[in-house]
Amino acid sequence: QVQLVESGGGLVQAGGSLRLSCAASGRTFSNNDMGWFRQAPGNEREFVATIDKSGSSTYYADSVEGRFTVSRDNAKNTLYLQMNNLKPEDTAVYYCAGTLRPYPSAADYYIGGNYHYWGQGTQVTVSS
Question: Which of 71, 95, 66 is nearest to 8 (CA)?
């Protein structure tokens, strides 16, 4: 079973940057597509970004396109989310997640229920 541990969250001013990391245990990380989600207080969990197992294909939510970059280092079993030009509306708990099977459509990766294992989350707070 793969376990995920996020880190890198914190408090930052609007316009600032943070890089989140998600360290995976287990030998299946490099075989799994991965994603980032976030949940703000009172809101439903929402998709942020996804990356395929090789790191060659990525997709983003419209709200973060051009500001966030998802990447991975399979040799280090680590997933990253570089967040630039942060806005107060980016404030949320950020979760990394992994799937145990591939899906035929990019839209399938936007659905949290299609991921099979999750980290505990890391808080990101952006002040105005």
Answer: 95
Place of tokens 């002040």: 127
**pLDDT digits 0-9 by tens, 25-63:** 977 899 999 999 999 999 999 999 999 999 999 999 999
Q: How far is CA 118 from the centre of its chain?
A: 10
Task: For residue 116, give every residue at least 6 positions away whose Cβ sits within 8 Å of its Cβ, in sequence order, or none.
Answer: 97, 98, 99, 100
Mapped onto helix, strand or coil, the DSSP state of residue 22 is strand
6: helix, strand or coil: strand
Q: What are phi and psi of 88, to 5 degrees?
A: -55, -30
- In this predicted model, what pLDDT tens digit does every residue of 32-42 receive, in sequence order? 999 999 999 99
Convert the pLDDT of each residue in 71-104 to its tens digit. 999 999 999 999 999 999 999 999 999 999 999 9
Q: What is the 3-state secondary structure (H, E, C) of 43-56?
A: CCCEEEEEECCCCC
Query: Hey, what are 10's tokens?
Result: 């914190």
22/97 Cα distance (integer angstroms):
9
